[in-house]
TrEMBL record:
The active site is at residue 186. Belongs to the DegT/DnrJ/EryC1 family. InterPro entries: DegT/StrS_aminotransferase, PyrdxlP-dep_Trfase, PyrdxlP-dep_Trfase_major, PyrdxlP-dep_Trfase_small. This is DegT/DnrJ/EryC1/StrS family aminotransferase.
Length: 374
């Protein structure tokens, strides 16, 4: 039995007709930038996130950049960001001329460790960027408390957390700004690039809307040096179709995560630890193992697709070599990058496929155990 890591073509098989009809609607409408599909999706996504405002962007990285700029973060400022996130979180901070200041994750949850944040704050710190990694919300209350007491903004990177909840409330407006990606492989994905920012702050929403539209609210009047970063109508139409399925697709991810959790209990792998008060959406189901590379190779041989999120933390990438950060500047991020393995996960992963992955993993672990004892 072959188990792909994630097969997006299966989604096309299920809802392809609806997607085609929605695309045809946009083609016939004559609206190719902005317009009713974008307005409708923004309203629907804001409602889904229980946020007052949603502003579309061209992609998730731009959503973060627009958010940071709207907060006034710029040259010489520092932004606190997890040491083990996808590099886009760091790149957004660098793109506005600010300096990413890494903070180590809690190795149990892989999310930023709130108890380490205070020590990273300097007079130049302007914002904290928690990342809800793998679809599990960070522990936001202590982060918001530190931010408020120190006068810092909170800009959440929610690119992996569509529909996740924190203390019963959807991710979408806990911090000042919440940034989304609709990259095709995300839990809510377009058929190309897309992004958005949600917020309860009307002034920030307005600034982001202008910044993404050449710094303009009225045609040919430019009050800021903006960029061109808008959600396009075809993608908005695709997202509207898929948003209707998101609750069911999220339930299926949760069911498979529960199956992995039960099936792999006691099998010798590090399993995801979920903190109290959150409901994760399992963008990724990530286990840890000291035998990660061997495990990945054997799973590939068995026809099971896996990926590594992420093989190199940002501070160990060439893009940040100028910061002069040694690999062990962030030892938790470095160690996790050597042990994490993302198992097949998605709304179309079938229970028997999931069970097959579990069986093979249990078998592999007994060989490691035997080798160790021998
Ligand atoms: C996907 C992702 C982004 C970037 O989104 P794009 O739409 O690909 O630009 C940012 N942060 C995290 C954590 C992501 O997973």
């Amino acid at each position: 039995m072959k188990v792909p890591f994630l097969d997006l073509s299966q989604m096309a098989a299920e809802i392809g007709d609806e997607l085609t009809q929605a695309a045809a609607r946009v083609i016939a409408s004559g609206w190719y930038i902005g317009g009713p599909e974008v307005e409708a999706f923004q309203a629907e996504w804001a409602a889904h996130c229980a946020a007052d405002h949603c502003v579309g962007a061209a992609n998730g990285l731009d959503a973060l950049v627009l958010g940071l700029r709207a907060l006034g973060v710029g040259a010489g400022d520092e932004v606190i960001v997890p040491s083990n996130t996808y590099i886009a979180s760091w790149l957004a901070i660098s793109a506005v001329g600010a300096h990413p200041v890494g903070v180590e994750p809690d190795p149990a949850t892989h999310n930023i460790d709130p108890t380490r944040i205070a020590a990273a704050i300097t007079p130049r710190t302007r914002a904290i960027m928690p990342v809800h990694l793998y679809g599990q919300p960070c522990d936001l209350d202590p982060i918001l408390t530190i931010a408020r007491s120190r006068g810092l903004a909170v800009i959440e990177d929610a690119a992996q957390a569509h529909s996740a909840t924190y203390r019963g409330q959807p991710i979408g407006a806990h911090g000042d700004l919440v940034c989304w990606s609709f990259y095709p492989g995300k839990n809510l994905g377009a058929l190309g690039d897309g992004g958005a920012v949600t917020t309860n702050n009307p002034d920030l929403a307005r600034t982001i809307r202008q910044l993404g539209n050449y710094g303009s609210e009225r045609k040919y009047e430019h009050t800021m040096r903006g960029l061109n970063s808008r959600l396009d109508p075809i993608q908005a139409a695709m997202l509207r179709v898929k948003l209707a399925y998101l609750p069911a697709w999220t339930d299926m991810r949760r069911a498979r995560a529960a199956q992995y959790m039960n099936g792999l209990d006691g099998a010798g792998f590090g399993l995801p630890h979920v903190i109290a008060g959150v409901d994760p959406v399992w963008h990724l189901y990530v286990i840890t193992s000291p035998h990660r590379d061997d495990l990945a190779a054997r799973l590939t041989d068995a026809g099971i697709g896996t990926l590594i999120h992420y093989p190199h933390p940002p501070h160990m990438q060439g893009a940040y070599s100028d910061l002069g950060l040694a690999p062990d500047s962030f030892p938790i991020a470095r160690d996790l990058s050597r042990q994490v393995l993302s198992l097949p996960m998605g709304p179309f992963l079938k229970p028997d496929q999931c069970q097959h992955v579990i069986d093979i993993l249990r078998e592999l672990n007994s060989t490691y155990r035997a080798a160790h004892l021998g």
